[in-house]
């Protein structure tokens, strides 16, 4: 009987992976599979997020897609390191990032963008693990419409400082997430940037160029390609908080 109950619980558990579950009046729980990445720590099977119920199911689906894209970008970094000793992300960040290379919790000074990219991804690994194994507080996807007091934004987050316990909570503008003219890769960079604030990265308000938090996010948005002459950074940074 106990075994039967346990089996049922496991079955319900696996159902959660495909079906979002409304857990309260306010939030729906979604699980996002963690891809197998070549890291030296045990990875959880899923990450868990609590999405505000005011988002439509389409908006919630896109948020889930963006989280998956961030995780795929993270996985690819480690795959390329395993194969070539260095990732495209490291090369991209190395080309452009100069300032605030280290997160607030990092004691040593980082000399290069390449080293900074490696530290950043290792910090994200810790956050994925903390989320997936339930060591961090609940990661909430909060809902906010821009207003006269809240300037227009895409995805934003408040600063946090401890990747082992700080949840990857962000606030999403539902109008931005419904824009079909915005590519997923652009919105993925916006989410990645909000996560960088949660991971401990800082930049002066509205200043992104040459700062780790800004350039790393633009590398995501360009899929690690070099900048194109004549295309201003503002084309990308308008989607960053
Ligand atoms: Zn920012």
Summarize the structure in words.
The protein is of the alpha/beta class and 241 residues long. The protein has one domain (2-237). It is built from eight helices and six strands, in the order αβββαααβββαααα. It has helices spanning 2-16, 57-84, 88-96, 113-132, 174-177, 184-199, 212-221, 234-237, and strands spanning 21-22, 27-33, 46-52, 140-143, 155-156, 170-172. The protein binds zinc ion. The site of zinc ion (ZN) has 6 residues, from α6.
Distance between the termini: 53 Å
Bound compounds, each kind once, are: zinc ion
Sequence of strands across the biggest β-sheet: 1-2-3-4-6-5
Along the chain, the helix and strand elements come as HEEEHHHEEEHHHH
Beta-strand content: 5-15%
Total helices: the number is 8
User: How would you sum up the major sheet?
Assistant: 6 strands, mixed
Rounded to an integer in angstroms, the radius of gyration calculated over CA atoms is 18 Å
Count of all domains: 1
Q: Tags for this entry?
A:
241 residues; alpha/beta; six-stranded mixed β-sheet; globular
Short description:
By secondary structure, the chain is of the alpha/beta class. It contains eight helices and six strands. The N terminus is likely disordered.
Please render the helix and strand layout as text.
Layout: H1 2-16, E1 21-22, E2 27-33, E3 46-52, H2 57-84, H3 88-96, H4 113-132, E4 140-143, E5 155-156, E6 170-172, H5 174-177, H6 184-199, H7 212-221, H8 234-237
Parallel strand pairs: 3-4, 4-6
Antiparallel strand pairs: 1-2, 2-3, 5-6
Helix pairs in contact: 2-6, 3-4, 3-7, 6-7
Zinc ion (ZN) binds next to helix 6.
């Amino acid at each position: 009987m106990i075994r039967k109950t346990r089996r049922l619980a496991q079955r319900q558990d696996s159902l959660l992976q495909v079906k979002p579950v409304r857990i309260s009046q306010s939030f729906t729980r979604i699980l996002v599979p963690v891809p197998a990445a070549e890291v030296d720590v045990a990875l959880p099977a899923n990450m868990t997020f609590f999405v505000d119920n005011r988002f439509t199911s389409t908006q919630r689906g896109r948020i889930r897609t963006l989280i998956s894209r961030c995780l795929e970008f993270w996985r690819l970094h480690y795959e390329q390191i395993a194969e070539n000793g260095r990732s495209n992300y490291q090369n991209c960040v190395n080309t452009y990032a100069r300032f605030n290379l280290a997160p607030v919790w990092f004691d040593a000074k980082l000399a290069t963008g390449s080293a900074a990219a490696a530290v950043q991804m290792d910090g994200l690994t810790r956050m994925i693990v903390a989320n997936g194994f339930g060591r961090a507080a609940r990661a909430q996807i909060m809902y906010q419409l821009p207003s006269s007091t809240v300037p227009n934004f895409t995805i934003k987050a408040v600063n946090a400082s401890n990747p082992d316990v700080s949840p990857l909570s962000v606030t999403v503008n539902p109008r931005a997430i419904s824009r079909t003219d915005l590519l997923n890769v652009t919105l993925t960079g916006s989410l990645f940037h909000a996560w960088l604030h949660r991971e401990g990265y800082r930049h002066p308000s509205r200043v992104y160029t040459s700062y780790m938090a800004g350039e790393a996010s633009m590398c995501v948005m360009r899929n690690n390609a070099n900048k194109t002459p004549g295309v201003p950074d503002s084309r990308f940074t308008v989607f960053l908080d």
